[in-house]
Amino acid sequence: MQITSRFTIAVHIITAIDYFKGMYRVNSEFLAGSAGVNPVIVRTVIGMLREAGIVETRRGAGGAELKKPLDKITFYDIYMAVDSVNEEEGLFHFHEQPNPDCPVGRNIHKALGARLKAVQKTMEEEMKKVTVDDVVKETRRAIMEESAQTIESESNADIREEK
Amino acid sequence: MQITSRFTIAVHIITAIDYFKGMYRVNSEFLAGSAGVNPVIVRTVIGMLREAGIVETRRGAGGAELKKPLDKITFYDIYMAVDSVNEEEGLFHFHEQPNPDCPVGRNIHKALGARLKAVQKTMEEEMKKVTVDDVVKETRRAIMEESAQTIESESNADIREEK
DNA sequence: GATAGTTGTAATATAACATATTACAACTAA
DNA sequence: TTAGTTGTAATATGTTATATTACAACTATC
User: Which residues of B touch A126 (CB under 8 A)?
Assistant: First the structure.
């Protein structure tokens, strides 16, 4: 099982909001086109990012913009914002009915649960060390290299642009 | 989304195999009763643990036993054995159709994927540090405390036993 | 202030996947 | 030979994520 794609969609959205700001009206339709998902999903994810104070949106006119500098938005912030993992249940799925009539069944949960929580914590701490800025910078670099190659190959000027 | 309960079931099974060895015939039915899951699930999980060289089973007579000492079985071993996370796809679910006509859409995957893989790696390294022995020891301690309390309270001798 | 375009959200549908269940052939200890 | 068990396939059920449809609330702009 995997952590919801809302997480990677959120990172994509934030990156795109930053990249296209000023160039396009960055609304849910536009972002949905970039990420290849449904506009309603984008609105849902953006709604969650808004509640977390990461983006700002406007009805009517449309368009989203960032409320925090990229290097202050960690993977953990996003992970929490989009409810990547159920708060109560945690990352690991427990089998729910260990037999209370069995000594192992009624006593393992505590020992196991504590250790799984610790593993999850380790992962989350690691996510605090990564920011969207890291992704944006590398993505921008990749885009530049891409166009550099196009020029290098002296092919022609049909540089593809997003619609 | 969560990591499959096969993982916690596997830890439970290994713990129970150790705890009840010699006392009961530890077959899939018995273990299913302890963990509160279907016997076929137990057989499936045990099958995966067998392929990983962690347990041994016998047809006919039934019963499973451990092939490795508890302190040599790490959470990571089990996590890998029961395919907790899809080998190719990883822990994080990527939105699969980022728009190739969009510079962000066709360039973000690499930067984002590398960082998610690193996070996953951190988690897995942490899982290598925990062994089933840790869980078994604490569970045994809990069981002892439990019966100590029963004696302490001088209630009576109706110490519950697994069926 | 009417209009056109957008967000926020509910309701529902579809798809994907995990777990449960049924069934039975292969096997083994006694 | 028998009784009991494993291994596994096939199928059912349940749960969750994502997609889709629909529309009221809202806002910039003409």
Answer: 118-119, 122-123
